[in-house]
Design a protein that fits this description.
About 65% of the residues lie in helices and about 0% in strands. By secondary structure, it is an all-alpha fold. It has two domains: about 40 residues; about 130 residues, no CATH class. It holds the Pfam family DUF2062.
């Protein structure tokens, strides 16, 4: 078992950890998720900077730059003076499970907006690798253009929704109007 996962020796007697290994690992992951959730709620800074960081992260989700989205998000957040942690957290929408449907949707949107590229998803399944490389520029341009459009809509809506929610959250925690009606 890894040293990172908790054992009963690492906790005070008052914390009762599950006995089996799977439950302990699940407990460890749930604690990590809760930690980052609380850390996200307690982010310091202006709500506009946090919302901008989230919007940057969400925008970069829609581009096929596998593995470096978080790095790009932090770089762009630094350049725009936005919250870097919020930008990194915004990229968590995209993961190996959601990448394929997300990029297929981006491709379809790009294909609808750029009708002069005669590509369809069905044709891409039938193409061999050399044929795909021949049509590569049209495919990549269509995918990136669809990602630009979908990412812009998603990031703008993320900015305003998160700005509203962060402002309401902070007002409710300072004795302002309550978060829930």
């Amino acid at each position: 078992m890894s040293k990172d996962f908790p054992t009963n020796k690492n906790y005070p007697k008052s914390v009762n950890l599950p006995k089996n290994r799977v439950s302990r690992e699940l407990h460890w992951w749930l604690r990590r998720i809760r930690y980052f959730y609380i850390r996200f709620l307690r982010l310091q800074g202006k709500p506009q900077k946090i919302a901008l960081g989230l919007a940057i992260g969400v925008f970069l989700n829609f581009f096929p730059v596998f593995g470096v989205q978080m790095i790009f998000a932090v770089i762009f957040a630094s350049l725009l003076k936005a919250n870097k942690f919020a930008a990194a957290a915004g990229t968590w929408v995209s993961n190996p499970i959601t990448d394929v449907p997300l990029f297929l949707f981006n491709f379809q949107v790009g294909r609808l907006l750029l009708p002069w590229f005669d590509l369809s998803v069905d044709q891409l399944y039938l193409l061999s690798y050399p044929e795909l490389m021949e049509s590569g520029l049209a495919f990549i341009f269509t995918l990136f253009f669809g990602g630009l459009v979908v990412g812009s809509v998603a990031s703008i809506s993320t900015y305003f929704l998160s700005l509203y929610l962060i402002t309401r959250w902070r007002n409710s925690s300072k004795g302002g109007k309550p978060f829930r009606r």
